[in-house]
Amino acid sequence: MIFMLKKIAKKITPKLYARLAEIKSERKLESFKKKYPEVKIFQNEGKGNRKLHSQSNQDYIVYENFFKNNREGFFCDIGGNHPLKINNTLYFENLGWRGVAFEPLPYMGELWAKHRKAKLFPFALSDREGEVEFTVVKDATGWEDMLSFVTETRNAEFDYETEKITIQAKIFKVIMAKEGISHIDYLSLDIEGHEMNVLKGIDFSKVRINVLTIENNSIDTLWGDENIREIMFENNFILWGRIMGLDDIYVHKDFIKNLKNN
């Protein structure tokens, strides 16, 4: 019924259409709260704390709740894009953390080499090695150029210019084994629709990850993809928080238990 009304309202008046969309969002939010009553809800305002660097305060939320006064952590940035603009890990690096990042766009890689200390891997991650097809979103406002697995249909909603390219992909667990990395304090995963594939390539029994922010809006912008959550639940994580319309925040059960005991 609401779907039919939306189609009619879009033709009649933008205000009515916007109100119906708002009602739909409110109902989804209530359903989400009913299913996940313990999850902390954050609104996606599209802008971060001026002193920090994330799009919607991801770095602030993670730091304040889990790593306050920690100057010796280790981060992993998957889908780093621009090393300075709208970046979830820059704040932690500035605190003194070490880290690694994955960003396959060559010109973004040059910026990482110039401005960041984290070791950069210039390729994509997936659940299999080989060539994968990406969509380059050109001149997306506020994002520079970025790579996306989301179809042109979604990008067309924002009238972005896109171009398909083929790049090399590797598997997270293989890279971690080669690098001897077995512990990550904070992992940021934001690769525009390919998050599930990356998660399938992580061996959580070999690499202990304490906190993750995972972009989860490609299936349903407000609610997110339950398949991503199932993978995380199966690997001993809780869904600690949700930035509505954007990210899930996951915390390892053992890590949250230690925080409560200290």
UniProtKB/TrEMBL annotation:
Cytoplasm among keywords: no
GO molecular function: methyltransferase activity
Pfam families, alphabetized: Methyltransf_21
Methyltransferase FkbM domain span: 77-238
Statement: the UniProt record of this protein carries the keyword Acyltransferase: no
Signal peptide: none
Lineage start: Bacteria, Pseudomonadati, Pseudomonadota, Gammaproteobacteria, sulfur-oxidizing symbionts
Cellular compartments per GO CC: cytoplasm; plasma membrane
Single GO BP term: methylation
InterPro entries on file: EGF_Rcpt_Signaling_Reg, FkbM_mtfrase, SAM-dependent_MTases_sf
Protein name per Swiss-Prot or TrEMBL: FkbM family methyltransferase
PANTHER family (UniProt xref): PROTEIN STAR (PTHR34009:SF2)
Keywords of this entry: Methyltransferase, Transferase
